[in-house]
Write a structure and sequence with these properties.
- The protein is an alpha+beta fold.
- The protein has a single domain, classed as Hemopexin (4 Propeller), CATH 2.110.10.
- It has four helices and nine strands, in the order αββββααβββββα.
- A hairpin with a 2-residue loop joins strand 2 and strand 3.
Length: 149
C-alpha cells in the first residue's frame, strides 16, 4: 500500500514539475502583497485533459484523489468538475471561493487524533476536515498550526 502511495505521489510531483507554467511575467502586480489576486489568477480550464496544471491534489480517506483547479474540484478520474464549495462549503464561507494553494491527507494510524484528516491551505489559513466536516476551531492561521512557516 505504501508503495502505491509513494508512486502516486512521485507521479503527481513529476507531472506538476513537467507542466509548463501559463503565468505571465506581469501576473502579480509588484506593489501588491503576495497572495491571491483573484482578478489576476489564471482561469481554470475545466477540461481535465486540456491542461496539466492543478492548484492542489490530495487523496481522501477512501483513496479517491481530489484535484483542485481554480475554484473547482474534480473527484477521482471520471467525475465532472464541481465548485469546491459544493463538497467543502466552509471554504466559501471563510475564503470567498478562491483556489486551494495546497492540500494533503494525514495518514498516521499511530496518531488517531490526526489520522485521515484532510488539510487545505488557502492564503494564510489552514482548514482541517474529518469525514468532510470542518473541524471545530478551524480555519486557523497557518503559523498557529505550523510555527515557522
Amino acid at each position: 500500500m505504501k508503495l502505491i502511495q509513494m508512486l502516486t505521489l512521485c507521479l503527481a510531483l513529476s507531472l506538476s514539475l513537467a507542466a509548463p507554467s501559463h503565468h505571465k511575467e506581469d501576473h502579480v502586480q509588484q506593489d501588491e502583497p503576495q497572495g491571491h489576486q483573484h482578478e489576476l489568477h489564471h482561469g481554470a480550464n475545466l477540461d481535465r485533459c486540456g491542461g496539466m496544471e492543478f492548484d492542489a491534489i490530495a487523496v481522501n480517506e477512501e483513496g479517491i484523489p481530489y484535484f483542485f483547479k481554480g475554484d473547482h474540484l474534480f473527484k477521482g478520474f471520471h467525475d465532472q468538475a464541481e465548485l469546491s464549495n459544493e463538497t467543502f462549503p466552509e471554504l466559501d464561507e471563510h475564503h470567498h471561493l478562491g483556489h486551494v494553494d495546497a492540500a494533503f491527507r494525514m495518514h498516521s494510524e499511530d496518531s488517531p487524533a490526526h489520522h485521515d484528516h484532510q488539510f487545505f491551505f488557502l492564503d494564510t489559513k489552514v482548514f482541517s476536515y474529518y469525514k468532510h466536516k470542518l473541524e471545530k476551531d478551524y480555519p486557523k492561521d497557518i503559523s498557529e498550526l505550523f510555527p515557522g512557516i
